[in-house]
From TrEMBL:
Residues 2-105 form the FAD-binding FR-type domain. Gene3D superfamilies: Translation factors (2.40.30.10). It holds the Pfam family FAD_binding_6. One of its GO terms (molecular function) is metal ion binding. Keywords: 2Fe-2S, FAD, Flavoprotein, Iron, Iron-sulfur, Metal-binding, Oxidoreductase. Its cofactor is FAD. It comes from the Bacteria. CDD domains: FNR_like. This is FAD-binding FR-type domain-containing protein. It comes from Nitrospira defluvii. InterPro entries: Cbr1-like_FAD-bd_dom, FAD-bd_FR_type, FNR_nucleotide-bd, MRET, Riboflavin_synthase-like_b-brl.
Length: 241
């Protein structure tokens, strides 16, 4: 059973049109590495009797294990996001974690690709801001694909969080979720990256349907890539029986 932990909000502000940026301080060290997430218990109960809990990636660097940031997109009629958007400085939350497999395991020198779609940008930012990632920045390409410039987090805000030593930062538009051309668009962008060859590692986060196809492309291209390099936020692939 997951152990409940506590944190207090020390700052809350609106970023963009529909996103709340929360800065919190935990009562004990989190013990997380960049790319992981926590699960917040809102204390609410849904109509079917289940506790309303939501996963949020840690946006901030793992250099500080007490103070951390979360970015929360408001979801219409979403009790979890409504709860978090209502938090102000001084209020407390209960959570479990850290959880997740999207983190750097080996600092083998070489080119790295981090490609995020949609809200997967939070996991990607946590990953690239991790202390273990610092020696790899000069050979890292960081790509965020989102539906529009006013989606979730402002482009300039995201660019400002990517470490300056990162070799390449690309933020581009992608068709809306569930549009048939969305995956082919992402494939074309990955193809541009693969033209340069020599990828040592890759990380994907966000749309599970996109992640699954791109993972297959990377494997076919000979890039060391497994499901451990992926964190899907939605459109999860069906588990085999």
């Amino acid at each position: 059973m997951a152990v409940a932990k506590q944190a207090q909000v020390v700052r809350a502000k609106t970023v963009g049109a529909h996103t709340r940026l929360l800065e919190l301080v935990a009562t004990e060290p989190l013990g997380f590495v960049g790319g992981q997430y926590i699960i917040i218990d809102s204390g609410l109960v849904s109509a079917n009797g289940k506790a309303v809990k939501r996963a949020y990636s840690l946006l901030s660097s793992d250099a500080d294990q007490h103070r951390f940031q979360l970015a929360v997109q408001r979801i219409p009629n979403g009790p979890g996001s409504e709860f978090l958007h209502g938090l102000e400085a001084g209020m407390k939350i209960s959570f479990s974690g850290p959880w997740g497999k999207l983190f750097l395991r080996e600092r083998v020198p070489g080119a790295t690709l981090i490609l995020a779609t949609d809200t997967g940008i939070t996991a990607a930012l946590g990953l690239i801001r991790s202390t273990e990632f610092t020696p790899l920045l000069a050979e890292t390409s960081f790509i965020w694909l989102r539906t529009s410039s006013d989606y979730f987090l402002p482009d300039d805000f995201v660019r400002g969080l990517v470490p300056e030593d990162c070799r390449e930062v690309r933020i581009e538009a992608i068709p809306e979720i569930d549009r048939p051309e969305r995956i082919s668009h992402a494939q074309a962008i990955l193809g541009q990256v693969l033209l340069h060859g020599g990828l040592t590692r890759m990380f994907l986060s966000g749309d599970g349907a996109v992640n699954s196809v791109l993972l297959d492309e990377l494997v076919r291209a000979g890039v060391p890539a497994t499901k451990d390099n992926i964190e899907s936020f939605f459109n999860m692939p069906k588990k085999s029986a």
